[in-house]
Amino acid sequence: MGPLTVYEIISANTNLVLAFVIGIGFGFVLENSGFSSSRKLAGMFYGYDTTVLKVFFTAAITAMVGTLIFALLGWLDLSVIYINPTYLWSAILGGAVMGAGFILGGFCPGTAFCALSIGKLDALAFIGGLFIGVFLFTEAYPVFEGIYKAEFMGAPFVYDALGMSRGVFAAILIIAAFGMFWLGEWSERKFPRDEY
Amino acid sequence: MMNLDKSKKYWNPYFGGVMLGLVLLAAIYTAGRGLGASGAVKSVLVTGMEAVAPSHVENTPFYKEYFASHSGNPMKSWLVFEMLGLVVGGFVSGAMAGRLKFKVEHSPKITSRKRIIFAVLGGIFFGLGSQLGRGCTSGAALSGMAVLSLGGFITMIFIFGTAFALAYFVRKLWI
Fold first, then answer.
1. What residue in A sits closest to B162 (Cα-Cα)?
2. Are residues B150 and B125 located together in one domain of the fold?
3. Distance between CA atoms of residues B113 and B116, nearest Å
4. Is the domain of B90 the same as that of B122?
């Protein structure tokens, strides 16, 4: 029964070794998918390259379906896996600030480290900015604390919030993703760019 | 099946997405948690601040709260090891595909200098937002969506929604 570390099938140190191995897989997949290029990532927002949309949603669906199958087979105890807590206002505001950072900087934190690993110096600059941004948050924490902790909702599931069952929501999400893939393919034909 | 796009030598994005999903599933199955990135930046910053400004760390509200909820060495964390692996994995992929090269990637319409300035600025926004939002595109949006967290979906919608909404105003940076 997983998660392996929670059920003490593997030790805490083994878990860290696996984190390193999983990280290698993470970086290898991101780089091979083109996520080490800021102009490819930014293409998402101008329609000329929707790789981000395709990789991101395919990954989310794959992991979601995999998690549900593992749970059905009795391999994974869903009640002990980490579910991100929801603080409504910080989820909205934090997301919006990150979106501004994405379109200005062309990376997100994971892709910036991936791009730095193959020598992209704009990624190094972005990572420098990340440290400044995190530093600003930690130093000005009392300013942000109110909104950071506002509207705490526990760790609700999206399907409960929408009043549907897990299976129905998962099915709708998969159909919606295929709709977005179709839009992405259409967009790349409509706004093509040769070289970037 | 290695579904390669021959013109750019990148993987087919749907194949890449399935692979990324399987990596994320491996994290959930072994560690009981999803992938992340910004948390490792915070660990490094906390460690650095402890080393250079210990008295400041002792008297700052953020660190008081941080150390009340985190025990042990911040560098001995799952996310730090995962991010070290990420850099290795990215390097290996880049080496295999012949993409290792020091360069500033930018639109021909802007200078390298302008690209660097906006990269720093974007990083500042993303760093600040990731703390406010309790995680970035990996930890909050992607991993949150995979475990069907409401917050994960909200953060994902606002990251991409805001980037789309602002894209027109900064189009010269990219196209």
1. A99
2. yes
3. 5
4. no
